[in-house]
């Protein structure tokens, strides 16, 4: 049985106006559903071990979102273990969902960067969607290069951010990823766009979360 570790943010506010945030519901629920349908073991970790927060509960009527909230998904996410207490070497993949929350506690977290680096270098799959690819920012491999350098990457775009949370985020994610060498792929705002470059799988926005999971599964099963 393949094992996937979903690493979530612990932040619940962002920016100068303390905008409420958390993990964006479909960005965790849709991948969770795909991993579950594939028969994978799914575990949760958060940076602090405190109960994570969910955003976009207004989207609860979507079938996979509702199943997550009323089934095992949200129950398990509330019991996310502290990342430092998890033996990540036992997982075939890690996945980081978005929402604005990762922009608060994931740009620089040293343990998270180490986990991403070591997971990738031992041949496992790393995936993220929307603002989740901020988890790859500042990750350096053993040869000193950025993990993003020369990789085909998607994330929430500058165009999308300008019409969503420009006054709340500390920086534009697309710009930061490109500055570390990412080959950035942007689709029309809010359209589905996911991309696999070897064992790195990323997606642009909530509509891309299902595709990220599907591509991660394809890589894991190859």
CATH fold-level label: Rossmann fold
CATH architecture: 3-Layer(aba) Sandwich
Strand content: 15-25%
**Main sheet record:** 7 strands, mixed
Strand numbers in spatial order across the main sheet: 7-5-1-8-9-13-12
CATH superfamily: Class I glutamine amidotransferase (GATase) domain
Helix-strand category: alpha/beta
Number of helices: 8
Radius of gyration: 16 Å
Q: Give the overall shape.
A: globular
- Write down the CATH class: Alpha Beta
Q: What's the structural domain tally?
A: 1
Could you give the order of the helices and strands?
Answer: EEEEHEEHHEEHHEEHHEEEH
Our measurement of the CA-to-CA distance between the termini, rounded to an integer number of angstroms, reads: 14 Å
Q: What is the β-strand count?
A: 13
Low-pLDDT ranges: none
Keywords: Lyase, Stress response
Pfam families: DJ-1_PfpI
Domain DJ-1/PfpI: 27-216
Protein name: Thiamine biosynthesis protein ThiJ
Can you offer a commentary on this structure?
By secondary structure, the chain is of the alpha/beta class. It has a single domain (3-221), classed as Rossmann fold (3-Layer(aba) Sandwich), CATH 3.40.50. 31% of the residues lie in helices and 19% in strands. It contains eight helices and 13 strands. It has helices at 25-37, 63-70, 72-78, 102-105, 110-121, 158-162, 173-179, 209-221, and strands at residues 3-8, 13-14, 19-20, 23-24, 41-46, 54-55, 81-82, 93-96, 125-129, 152-153, 183-184, 194-197, 200-203. The strands form four sheets. It has a seven-stranded mixed β-sheet. A two-stranded antiparallel sheet has the order 2-3. Strand 2 (13-14) and strand 3 (19-20) form a beta hairpin. Helix 1 packs parallel to helix 8. The two termini are 14 Å apart. The model has no long low-confidence stretch (mean pLDDT 98). Pfam families: DJ-1_PfpI.
């Amino acid at each position: 049985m393949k094992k996937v570790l979903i690493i979530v943010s612990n932040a619940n506010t962002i920016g100068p106006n303390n905008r409420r945030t958390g993990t964006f519901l479909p960005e965790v629920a849709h991948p969770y559903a795909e991993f579950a349908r594939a028969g994978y073991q799914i575990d949760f970790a958060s940076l602090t071990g405190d109960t994570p927060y969910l955003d976009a509960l207004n989207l609860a009527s979507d079938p996979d979102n509702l199943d997550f909230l009323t089934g095992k998904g949200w129950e398990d996410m509330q019991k996310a273990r502290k990342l430092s207490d998890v033996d990540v070497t036992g997982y075939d993949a890690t996945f980081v969902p978005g929402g604005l929350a990762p922009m608060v506690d994931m740009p620089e977290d040293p343990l998270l960067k180490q986990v991403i680096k070591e997971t990738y270098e031992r041949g496992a799959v790393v995936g993220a969607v929307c603002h989740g690819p901020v988890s790859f920012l500042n990750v350096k491999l053993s040869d000193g290069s950025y993990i993003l350098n020369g990789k085909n990457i998607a994330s929430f775009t500058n165009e999308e951010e300008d019409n969503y949370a420009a006054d709340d985020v500390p920086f534009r994610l697309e710009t930061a990823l490109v500055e570390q060498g990412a080959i950035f792929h942007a689709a029309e705002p809010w359209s589905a766009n996911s991309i696999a470059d070897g064992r790195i799988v990323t997606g642009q926005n909530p509509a891309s979360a299902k595709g990220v999971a599907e591509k991660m599964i394809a890589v894991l099963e190859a």
